[in-house]
From TrEMBL:
Binding site for (S)-2,3,4,5-tetrahydrodipicolinate: H137, G146, T147
Organism placement in taxonomy: Archaea, Methanobacteriati, Methanobacteriota, Stenosarchaea group, Halobacteria
UniProt name for this protein: 4-hydroxy-tetrahydrodipicolinate reductase
Catalysis: reaction(s): (S)-2,3,4,5-tetrahydrodipicolinate + NADP(+) + H2O = (2S,4S)-4-hydroxy-2,3,4,5-tetrahydrodipicolinate + NADPH + H(+); (S)-2,3,4,5-tetrahydrodipicolinate + NAD(+) + H2O = (2S,4S)-4-hydroxy-2,3,4,5-tetrahydrodipicolinate + NADH + H(+)
E.C. designation(s): 1.17.1.8
Record keyword Acetylation present: no
Species, as recorded: Halosegnis marinus
Enzyme class, broadest EC rank: oxidoreductase
């Protein structure tokens, strides 16, 4: 395959480039300020002419333009970027009318397993208090993480109700039963840790995933690009291609 990578100079995009090349894929590394061997993101349309897919780990505000370019070029669009707003999501839906679109908050297979385990834990312990903590490097813009939002949605689905998401705690307040605490830490070079704690009378269940390298995200994203190649236009989840 020939994979175009938006965000190729970034923490994660650079790992996608490395993973793709390790799998003997040709890579179009895109940058706003291209070095030797990289392509100018401003010429995205031309770059996609010969590409088989676009993989995107950039910023949410770039998603609408990237989605439109993928659709115009007729190439599948794999989105790792998180913090997507309604405009970005609408752009993904529009592009999915023409090409396969797969957006995932976390391309680590272990996080997909964590989502399943969290649903099972909450279904088994619906009366237990749930608290979520996520930790990422000090360069991460969005909070809570996209993965945390996916985990919170999974907890709501398993509980059968939309819990009140309480971001941090301060002051003099008792915890409500229909509440989920959300705690965010930004420090150092942490690649990504997510913990869901379920606590009841006299016992605690802690479910945790920790990424040791961004290569785990890159591997999942390249898997997704490979497996979207023969799919019909539409929106896909990562679980659709696992
Ligand atoms: N779904 C998943 O599994 C994962 C998702 N992510 C998400 O991926 C995104 C990127 O994270 P990370 O790799 O740490 O970010 P970085 O900041 O390291 O890289 C982002 C890259 O995007 C490019 N960029 C920055 N601003 C713009 C812009 N306005 N338009 C186009 N391109 C731009 C830059 O490249 P240049 O300057 O060369 O153009 C930069 O290198 C985040 O949203 C993060 O949450 C991260 C890891 C895993
Ligand atoms: O910004 C990151 O680094 C990551 N972001 C994703 C998220 O917001 O969930 C996935 C992963 O945790 C790394």
């Amino acid at each position: 395959m020939r994979l175009a990578v938006a965000g190729a100079t970034g923490r994660t995009g650079s790992e996608v480039v490395a993973e793709a090349r390790d799998r003997d894929h040709a890579v179009v590394a895109l940058s706003r300020d291209p070095d030797e061997g990289e392509h100018d993101l401003a010429d995205l349309d031309a770059a996609l002419d010969a590409a088989d897919a676009l993989v995107d780990f950039t910023v949410p505000e770039a998603t609408p333009d990237h989605a439109a370019a993928a659709a115009d070029a007729g190439v599948p669009y794999v989105v790792g970027t998180t913090g997507l707003d309604d405009e970005a999501e609408a752009a993904l839906d529009a592009a999915a009318g023409t090409v396969p679109v797969l957006a995932a908050s976390n391309f680590a297979k272990g996080v997909q397993a964590l989502l399943r385990v969290v649903r099972a834990g909450v279904e088994a312990l619906p009366e237990y208090d749930a608290e979520l903590t996520e930790t990422h490097h000090d360069g991460k813009r969005d909070a809570p993480s996209g993965t945390a939002v996916s985990l919170l949605d999974a907890i709501d689905e398993a509980r059968g109700e939309a819990l009140d998401r309480t971001y941090g705690r301060e002051g003099d307040h008792l915890r409500e039963a229909a509440e989920v605490g959300v705690h965010v830490r930004r420090a150092g070079t942490v690649r990504g840790e997510h913990e869901v704690l379920l606590a009841g009378d006299d016992e605690v269940l802690t479910l945790t995933h920790r990424a040791e390298s961004r290569r785990v995200f890159a591997a999942g994203a390249v898997d997704a690009a490979e497996r979207l190649a023969d799919r019909e236009a539409g929106r896909y989840d990562f679980t659709d291609v696992l």
